[in-house]
Amino acid sequence: MTDETLTDVTVIGGGPVGMFTAFYSAMRNLSVQLVDSLPELGGQVAALYPEKPIHDIAGFVSGTGAELIANLKRQIDSFGDKIGVHTNEEVTGLERLDDGTFILRTAAREIHTRSVIVAIGSGAFSPRPLAIDYDREQLDGRKVFYFVKRLADFKGKTVAVAGGGDAAIDWALELEQIADKVVLIHRRDNFRALESSVTRLKESTVAILTPYKFTTVAGTPDGLHIELAKIKSDEVLDLDVDALLVNYGFTSDNHVLRDWGLPVKRGDLQVNEYLETDVPGIYGVGDAVNYPGKVKLISAGFGEVPRAVNHLAEQLYPDRKQPLHS
């Protein structure tokens, strides 16, 4: 299907930053199309961390990923007449026309747009697995987990958490409230997480095992048997748990940016102070972009959105003045 209407801006990516981009564009009275390859809006937050607390958004106190996405959906719905949402549609082509406008292609449609804002985050993602052999087919999703959809599934259980970053510590602290016992396993004595979270961890009932590496993970009738080896030591430790939650981060792939002919360096879209690429009319926000001083947080991505949208609005409609506040 070809959309004969010329849209002011098309947002590629339906995670939190992409959703806010669509909303803020509508706030500037721009016509918007929002396209995402996943079946539902929300990106990684909705797909992987719906019950994880979100800490870095001002005024959003003790809220979960699911609550954040629900709030962003309500914002979009308030401008339903200006925002077209297309989920489960991957952008397979991006072409700049001679008049400076663009054609975006998906399997379902072509979108004719005056500008594009890329908000695809880190692109396609997959969890980093345990660096040992174990029966993934039988254990993954049953006793070994790489993300949490429902905290209640771990109620009353003994849970081991692998990792030393923010996600691992956050999940350990959340699980502490409902699990019978939580053990955090990390291969280093130091943690790569917010200092306040590390302080809370050390003050909690979570058992901390450092520095240990996994040598064996095997299923048992009642759960899992884990063998650990202490780093630079002959010490070996055996653990029996009900479940193991692995938080080693994710590998990502933004190859589609190159496929679209956009300027990419080390996997990130290169942008200027207005979040515009070297291709006039194409912008990037959120984790998909890089520039000096870039911070990859949801809150930082939210802050980039007004810069990008206000600049492109001025380019499209020079007579419009940038708002002083919203």
From TrEMBL:
Belongs to the ferredoxin--NADP reductase type 2 family. Its cofactor is FAD. InterPro entries: FAD/NAD-bd_sf, FAD/NAD-binding_dom, Fd--NADP_Rdtase_type_2, Ferredoxin-NADP_redctase_2. Its EC number is 1.18.1.2. Homodimer. Binds 1 FAD per subunit. This is Ferredoxin--NADP reductase. Residues 8-293 form the FAD/NAD(P)-binding domain. FAD binds at D36, Q44, Y49, V91, F125, D287. The lineage of its organism: Bacteria, Bacillati, Actinomycetota, Actinomycetes, Bifidobacteriales. It comes from Bifidobacterium callimiconis. The keyword NAD does not apply. Keywords: FAD, Flavoprotein, NADP, Oxidoreductase. It catalyses: 2 reduced [2Fe-2S]-[ferredoxin] + NADP(+) + H(+) = 2 oxidized [2Fe-2S]-[ferredoxin] + NADPH; [thioredoxin]-dithiol + NADP(+) = [thioredoxin]-disulfide + NADPH + H(+). GO terms for molecular function: ferredoxin-NADP+ reductase activity; flavin adenine dinucleotide binding; NADP binding; thioredoxin-disulfide reductase (NADPH) activity. It holds the Pfam family Pyr_redox_2.
